[in-house]
Amino acid sequence: MQEYGLYLDGKWVTPTGASRFQTINPATREPVGSFVAGTAADVDRAVSAAAKAFPSWRDTPAPRRGEVLLAAAVEMRRRKEELGRLVTTEMGKVIGEGRGDVQESIDFIEYMAGEGRRLFGETVPSELPSKFCLTVRQPKGVVACITPWNFPTAIPNWKIAAALICGNTIVFKPASNTAGCGAEVVRVYEAAGLPPGVLNFVTGSGAVVGNAMVADPRVRLVSFTGGVETGRDVNVRGAQGLKMVHLELGGKNPLIVMDDADLKLALDGVLFGAFGTAGQRCTATSRLILHERVFDEFLGMLEDRLRTFSVGNPIDPATGMGPVASADQERKILEYIALGQKDSKLRRGGHKLTGGAYDRGFFLEPTIFETQHGSRISKEEIFGPVLSAIRVGSYEEAVRVANDVEYGLSSAIYTRDVNRAFRAIHDLEAGITYVNAPTIGAEVQLPFGGIKNTGTGGREAGSVAVEEFTEIKSVFIDFSSRLQKAQIDTPNLP
Ligand code: UN1
């Protein structure tokens, strides 16, 4: 088992007397890595190192910062297989998706490296003669990145690569159950030649490490992806320090299948959207909104396909779905399944898998409920392989149901009617809409984020990723050699 320290000011260190925690493989419960349970004092050292490194990283030309990012992308690509296996081993997603997690990291780091030669501002006309107006982007300073376990390399990289290209320095805290993936992301940047102090890494609990990061007055921005309750708490704590808080939280993503849809295509989409990553994506398809004319036929097709869908060790390329990520996850999902059994019809699954190798891990059956819109399973984020199927009588009803939840991250519609597809793009309340594709699988060159309780309105990824990590400065250059007064020296036009 690999032992990791904290990464502070360019060095891996283990503070004296530190207590440690372990990560485990959720398929086997075997230990994966051992980590320092960080303290507030460790966070203080990390923030101090980041604050000290800031001026010189800020003053490194952005294209040079981009070169470090490109080197990180090359390193990540070189280690893709090894890191993909680590993602699968520590988090439990199937190996194809483990590699995909790393690929998403590579894609985004490369994309952000190019941003080093853009970071566009604006030039804007002045109301006065001989005066030039423009905007420039400047880094915010020390930023805190707090990341979840479900994309244990990709989401850290969405934050780290964007923060770095903009010239910020970072304190990074990964989810505790995927701390090894977080540590290896840091080693990638270390190998790429990132100067000491620019990226610091502190493992430990949200209550101790996370809260100390949010409380530190030198941290200007907190970028957090995770659950809605923790997000609310981070936002409230950040508000005390008048900090900028970027949140990417939950989803209860609808996939609508209309009566004119290509049902075979929709079937593949639902299987991937609902049971890919064992349903543990914020973008997972958790509500299947089916037109009544295809309801029975489509659910029948889905049940048939699930009969041959394999749940097992995610490192085996033949496995369709791995375990859920932790004992906590398993408990929470089983609670929702019990809740669903009270008011909804269980169509398939609903149990923990037991016997043989299953006994060692957190394996659940892919589960489908037939439910009514309004039941708790139809409205609350479960974050597991549990799909709620809801019958609707029209497009209008489908949209009403789709929109009537607290979240608004991803959404999808399957239809062959082009007019209806465009109407859905307009009507669905979500940050992302797919037409004839499932709710998961966003590409990094487009903005990612949601509306309503999914977050505070910002977006990650895409060219707008730099918005989160920069301040805009407005610049006025007066070359008239006299005092010109805006709003006062305005000629009175007839
Ligand atoms: C998440 O679940 O938090 O769009 C991120 C997707 C992935 C990212 C998901 N590219 O499903």
Rg (CA only): 24 Å
Largest sheet data: 7 strands, mixed
The CATH architecture category of the largest domain equals 3-Layer(aba) Sandwich
Determine the fraction of residues in helical runs and give it as a percent range.
25-40%
What's the overall average pLDDT, rounded?
97
Unreliable residue stretches = none
How many E-type strands? 22
CATH topology of the largest domain: Aldehyde Dehydrogenase, Chain A, domain 1
| Distinct helical segment count | 15
Distance between the termini: 81 Å
Oligomer: single chain
- CATH superfamily grouping of the largest domain: Aldehyde Dehydrogenase, Chain A, domain 1
Query: How large is the share of residues in beta strands?
Result: 15-25%
Shape: globular
| Number of structural domains | 2
Cross-sheet strand order for the largest sheet = 15-16-17-14-13-19-20
The distinct bound ligands, ions and cofactors come out as: 2-aminohexanedioic acid
CATH C-level name of the largest domain? Alpha Beta
In terms of structural class, how would the helical and strand content be classed?
Answer: alpha/beta
